[in-house]
Design brief:
The chain has about 375 residues and is an alpha/beta fold. The chain is built from 10 helices and 17 strands. The chain folds into 2 domains: about 80 residues, Urease, subunit C, domain 1 (Roll); about 260 residues, TIM Barrel (Alpha-Beta Barrel). A hairpin with a 5-residue loop joins strand 15 and strand 16. It is globular.
C-alpha cells in the first residue's frame, strides 16, 4: 500500500504510549497508520533527521473569537507554531457563542473547543474590565447551548481578579460552580491573577477537573505563602484532581513564583499561552506555544513533561484523547516537527525581569489532518 506521507528518521515523543525514540510515522488520508517500521512507499517522504516529531500541539488557553473581540487572534495563524488544536477560554458568553461557532470554529483548520464566560458577552477589549453578577447567569440559555453543542462546550469561565469580581469575591465563584453542577458535565476554569482572597481559598472550592489558571502569576495573592512555600490548600487541590494551567499570557507569569514552585516539585499540568492579539508573535513573555515550551525547558522541566502538558493532558480534558495529542494508529494525522536548537533567549515576566535560557524549540513542519499546512523554508530540502 502506498501511504500519503511518511515521516522518516525523526525522534518521536508521544507520552500517551511512553515513546521517546526514533520511529517512522505514516499517514493515510487524515489518520495516523501503524507501519511497525517496515519498508513502505509514500507519495511524500519527509526526512526528519535531527528533528523531534510530536503530536500536533494543543494550546489549552487561547482567545480566538477573531473579529468578535479585540483580544482575539485568528486561530489558523497558530498552525506554523505546531498548534493543531486549541481551547478558547471564555472569549464569548452565551449571548454570542453561536456567532463564534458559525464564523470561526466551523471555518478553522484547528480543532477547537470552548469555555463560555459566565458574563453574557465574554471579553470585548483589554481596556474594558468584565464585571460579573450572578443575577445575569442565564442557566436556561446555557443549558440549551450545552445540549446543542455538547462536545464543543467544555464548561464555564470566571475571572477572579479584584477588578472583575470586586466585593462579591468567592460568592461569585461558588455561584459559578453551582451553575456548572446544575447544568452537568461542565468544568469551571478560573482566572486567578490578583484575586480578592487567598488563592488557597479558590483552589479549595474547585472540583476534580476544574482548572486553576495562571498558577505562576506574581500579582497580589499567589500560590506561595509568606514562607515562600506552596500553599497547603493548593497542594491538596492538585492531589484531588484540580488542573493547574500555567497560562502564561502577558501578565500572568513571575519568574520567582515559578522557580520557587518548581523547586518544590510543583509542576503545572498544562502549559498554554493565554494568547491574545497584543502578544502574538511579538512578546518576550508569550509569543507562541513553542516559545513558552522553551522557557520551561530552561526552568528545568524534562522534555516528556513538557510534551505531555501540551498534548496528552489537554486532550484528556477536552475528551478527545485517542483522537488528538497522540501519534497512535487511528488518531488524527496532526504532527508537529521541531528542532531544539542551542540559542540564548531572553524571557520576560510581569515584573519586567528577565531570565536567559539556552534552548529554543523551532517549528519545522506542521501537518493538520494529513495536510502539510506549514513548512520552514530550510526544512526537508
Amino acid at each position: 500500500m502506498d501511504y500519503d506521507i511518511l515521516i522518516k528518521n525523526g525522534h518521536v515523543v508521544d507520552t500517551t504510549v511512553g515513546l521517546n525514540a526514533k520511529k517512522d510515522i505514516a499517514i493515510l488520508g487524515d489518520k495516523i497508520v501503524n507501519i511497525d517500521n517496515v519498508a513502505v512507499n509514500a507519495r511524500h517522504i519527509v526526512n526528519a533527521e535531527g528533528c523531534y516529531v510530536f503530536p500536533g500541539l494543543i494550546d489549552y488557553h487561547t482567545h480566538i473569537y477573531y473579529g468578535g473581540s479585540e483580544f482575539a487572534v485568528d486561530p489558523d495563524l497558530m498552525l506554523p507554531s505546531g498548534v493543531t488544536s486549541a481551547v478558547d477560554t471564555g472569549t464569548c458568553g452565551y449571548a454570542n457563542f453561536e456567532v463564534f461557532y458559525r464564523n470561526i470554529i466551523t471555518n478553522s483548520l484547528l480543532k477547537i473547543r470552548s469555555y463560555l464566560s459566565v458574563n453574557p458577552g465574554g471579553l470585548f477589549d483589554p481596556k474594558y474590565h468584565v464585571n460579573y453578577y450572578s443575577e445575569f447567569f442565564n442557566a436556561p440559555r446555557i443549558i440549551r447551548l450545552k445540549d446543542k453543542y455538547r462536545d464543543q462546550i467544555l464548561g464555564l469561565k470566571i475571572m477572579m481578579s479584584k477588578v472583575n469580581v470586586g466585593e462579591y469575591g468567592l460568592d461569585l465563584l461558588e455561584a459559578t460552580i453551582a451553575l456548572a453542577d446544575e447544568i452537568g458535565d461542565m468544568n469551571v476554569v478560573v482566572h486567578t491573577t490578583n484575586p480578592p482572597c487567598n488563592t488557597g481559598e479558590i483552589a479549595d472550592r474547585l472540583r476534580p477537573g476544574d482548572v486553576f489558571c495562571h498558577c505562576f502569576s506574581g500579582t497580589g495573592n499567589t500560590i506561595l505563602g509568606e514562607d515562600n512555600k506552596i500553599s497547603e490548600k493548593i497542594i491538596k487541590a492538585k492531589e484531588r484532581g484540580v488542573i493547574f494551567d500555567a497560562a502564561n499570557g502577558m501578565s500572568h507569569y513571575c519568574h520567582e513564583v515559578a522557580e520557587a514552585a518548581v523547586s518544590q516539585g510543583f509542576i503545572p499540568d498544562i502549559i498554554s499561552t493565554d494568547l491574545v492579539s497584543y502578544s502574538f508573535n511579538t512578546s518576550k513573555r508569550a509569543r507562541s506555544l513553542p516559545h513558552l515550551m522553551s522557557k520551561y525547558l530552561g526552568l528545568g522541566l524534562d522534555l516528556n513533561t513538557i510534551i505531555k502538558s501540551v498534548t496528552e493532558t489537554p486532550a484528556k480534558i477536552m475528551k478527545m484523547d485517542g483522537t488528538i495529542g497522540t501519534l497512535e494508529a487511528g488518531a488524527a494525522a496532526d504532527v508537529a516537527i521541531m528542532k531544539i536548537v542551542d540559542k540564548k533567549v531572553l524571557f520576560e515576566d510581569i515584573n519586567n525581569t528577565y531570565r536567559e535560557y539556552n534552548k529554543l524549540f523551532v517549528p519545522q513542519m506542521t501537518i493538520c489532518d494529513g495536510v502539510v499546512v506549514y513548512c520552514c523554508p530550510e526544512f526537508n530540502v
